[in-house]
From TrEMBL, chains A, B:
GO molecular function: aminopeptidase activity
Keywords: Aminopeptidase, Hydrolase, Protease
Domain Peptidase M24 intervals: 148-350
InterPro entries associated with the record: Creatin/AminoP/Spt16_N, Creatinase/aminopeptidase-like, Creatinase_N, Pept_M24, Peptidase_M24B
PANTHER family noted in UniProt: AMINOPEPTIDASE, CYTOPLASMIC PEPTIDASE PEPQ-RELATED
Protein name as it appears in the record: Peptidase M24
Pfam families the UniProt entry points to: Creatinase_N, Peptidase_M24
Domain called Creatinase N-terminal: residue spans: 8-140
Keyword flag Hydrolase: yes
SUPFAM superfamilies in the record: Creatinase/aminopeptidase, Creatinase/prolidase N-terminal domain
């Protein structure tokens, strides 16, 4: 793997040099991981004029940056213990010592206070903004990344499928969420990709609902949204079910509308399609069905090392989809006091010649009455 | 409860006015919660010249700021949906509209990019630094806060005690951690206070070790550190056990040293004692016993709405303990390749007249061979 990380760092190097910065400091955890692999929490990466250095407050536990003997294309490891020692400050010191005149930092990650500390530590270095350069590199995933996400999707489908075979009525949202997360790990996930959503009755369909002690009851809508983290890569699958022998008419009507909207969004995932178009086609179906009020601002988003990363599928988003960009399509409607429906999938954008979008989360989307 | 929050906001108001800022923007989540109670993720609090406003991207789910009808001493709620809408920017707008000339912000929380967006949104307003003013208010806990932490401690002790009654050999660190977190929630915790640490064999005693697939084996040291979140308030309890009929001599020797160090730290928790003194007495015991190499920079820290908050017990820490300040005492020694010992407790500083430090985590600290 370490060649992959070296190649990613080289691309960033070239961009920085082109932008006039001989050195860059990467502090956002997902960005550091993208460029170095798994590293200790809080570690930062200096792409220096002379050398690349991973600065951490602790020695990486196994696995190191790569298995096998250290390689020339790996960054040097600098460990700076000390309760108040900020690795970013140590990295700025190092950049100055190596004669860097300017250092591009991630202004969307560093706090004002940290940024000031960097400036004070390396007075001779001009601090520039690296912007979201690493996030841009992360947009299009390689085969290795996508295969990790494929496995993450299988793990989430598996955990959800097993839960559906058990008795749900009378159990609390909290317990169902914990059981799902245990099953994810049982099957080999490194952990949940995000806090598992289990929302019953009036909570169903609420975005980002945190599980409560509400018990599942007959007649409820039940929304479950979960994801697995596999080697750092994430996925998201969300489904809504009806509890009891058969759904009420209003439940069927609402479900059909969200299902149609989600399908429209999925089918729009083609290279060259504008982000906002995907959002619009999804939204239009819900609006036409009379559920346009109070829709969430976002109907989907990129996913990878973070559960919510670029691109964002919103009415104001700028840009177009590329092939091999994984995104979620997750429209939802919540009717206050009654509940609602959400359907989330994770897909990879593929050209029609390759069969169109690749669905990573295959749990059925027909309305199940459990 | 809402009177409590109103009183806290009033104290902060006074401090800001004294510091020359008519308005303050609180963005750090734990600080917003301290001043308003449970709020939606990402919500920020504007302490304005005219009004206090809680700005959120979604309507708070139950429970609202307080139960019962809205009160005059509650901040107004402003909901600003929109995928790209930053509540902090909306709050800065509002401060400007209300005629604030300066706005104190949390520079240790806001990123450089967000800070710039605030400045652009409210050009007529001078941005000042609120610093850690709210963190300072949070240092000394009131009875309500301490009773929540007492319950959090009981929940963690209970989950740990139950686990010790089960068979541990052959189970992975990961599964033991998940079982502990399930038990925490079963007993009424809102969740774990931090990612549960289960470290077996050579992993034992490693700070912040994340559970792996390493199985517990005969002869292992086993370090477990967990905490409960109860109504936002947290605690931490950590213990190290030996697996098998009887510990080896080196294990007893190491355990006794860490135990003695941890006791020295606990006994030093008295009002007026310097933070660094508590750290020093703990460290000295380990150094005298020959375990002084590679000690962690921090032997304990404050705890409350965050698991790791002010004060920090380090060699360089400035300041003295006050009564009613909860802290952890958690020395540890890790011998690479062999494992190690950590013992963590959460205590509340109390004067000797009141019986000295109050121990919130009462699981036995004698060396158990399981």
């Amino acid at each position: 793997m370490s060649e992959v990380y070296a190649a990613r760092r080289a691309r960033l190097h070239d961009q920085c040099t082109a932008a006039g910065s001989a050195a860059a400091l990467v502090s956002r955890p997902a960005n550091v991981r993208y460029l170095c692999g798994a590293v200790p929490p809080g570690a930062v990466l200096l792409l220096g004029p002379v050398q690349d250095v991973l600065v951490a407050t602790e020695v990486p536990s196994a696995p190191p940056l790569s298995s096998g003997p250290p390689r020339s294309d790996e960054p040097r490891l600098l460990v700076t213990p000390g309760a108040d020692g900020d690795p970013a400050v140590a990295a700025a010191d190092l950049a100055a010592a190596d004669g860097a005149e300017s250092l591009a930092v991630e202004e969307h990650d560093l706090t004002v206070a940290r940024h000031r500390a960097l400036g004070a530590a390396a007075r001779r270095v001009r601090l520039a903004d690296l912007g979201r350069a690493v996030e841009q590199l992360r947009l299009i995933k390689d085969d290795e990344e996508i295969s990790c996400m494929r496995i993450a999707g299988e793990l989430a489908d598996q955990a959800l499928g097993e839960l559906l075979e058990s008795i749900l009525v009378g159990r609390t949202e909290r317990h169902l969420a914990l059981e799902l997360e245990r099953r994810l790990v049982d099957h080999g996930a490194d952990g949940p990709a995000f806090p598992t959503v289990v929302a019953a009755g009036p909570n169903a369909g609420r975005p980002g609902h945190l599980p409560t002690d509400r018990r599942v009851e007959e007649g409820d809508f039940l929304t479950i949204s979960l994801g697995a983290d596999y080697r750092g890569y994430r996925c998201q699958v969300g489904r809504t079910f009806v509890i009891g022998p058969s759904p009420a008419d209003w439940q069927v009507e609402l479900y059909d509308a969200v299902f149609a909207a989600q399908r429209a969004g999925r089918e729009a995932l083609l290279p060259g399609r504008a982000y906002r178009d995907v959002d619009r086609v999804t939204r239009q179906v819900l609006t036409a069905a009379g559920f346009g009020d109070g829709l969430e601002p976002c109907t989907g988003h990129g996913v990878g090392l973070e559960i919510d990363e670029d691109p964002r599928l919103t009415p104001s988003a700028m840009g177009k989809l590329d092939a091999c960009v994984p995104v979620t399509v997750e429209p939802g409607v919540h009717l206050p006091g009654r509940g609602g429906v959400r359907i989330d999938d994770t897909l990879v954008v593929r050209p029609e010649a390759d069969g169109g979008p690749e669905l990573l989360t295959i749990t059925t989307k027909e309305l199940l009455a459990l």
